[in-house]
Amino acid sequence: MKKIYRTLLIILGILILLGGIYAVVLPILNPPVARKPAVYLYPLQDSFISVNLEVNGKIIESIPDYKEGWNVFVTKEGIIENNLDYLFYEAKLNKLTIPKEGFVVSSSDLDSWFDKNLKEMGLNEKELSQFKEYWISELNGSKYYIIKLLSDDFLTQNMNLLVSPTPDTMIRLNFYFKGVDKIVKLEEPVITTPVRNGFTVVEWGGILEE
Description:
- With 210 residues, the chain is of the alpha+beta class.
- 29% of the residues lie in helices and 36% in strands.
- It has two domains: 1-30; 31-209, no CATH class.
- It contains four helices and ten strands; from the N terminus they run αββββββααβαβββ.
């Protein structure tokens, strides 16, 4: 009996060890990718604006080329370098903290869900349209999707956005998406609609768990 007990303890210890190794190795082998964060700039007057990223990981794509930061001319209408609506980047992250609260949405309802909720979260019509243009086509492989808004603390620690001059209003909507085959019960967060005042910076993007 003692031998069986010791054997079970050994097996349990091995399983715990493997679980720890899995938790450490998986992010290294398959790091989460922040996909298409789009950064919109709305100065009160035509201005040169500096934008820098502090990424806990590695920037893998950018438009314009990020190099050591973006220094761009932006009109008061939000047009960047005469031809861009937003700054674009993608990054492999070393860490992902997933909030507990979230939404579960049928893939067939994503379009209408985004229309309603992203407006409440602060996007205007152009930003919402460009968000959907990208994400609706990406979210097409599952019956339902879990949608969670990454916290401001996580963004500051892993995808910090530094803008000079300092914006009066900053709206950052970066989501975690995961496809599921059935409805999962989640507590939904309370949506607070931000007010745009003064120089406003808006960002949207997402992480899709494959």
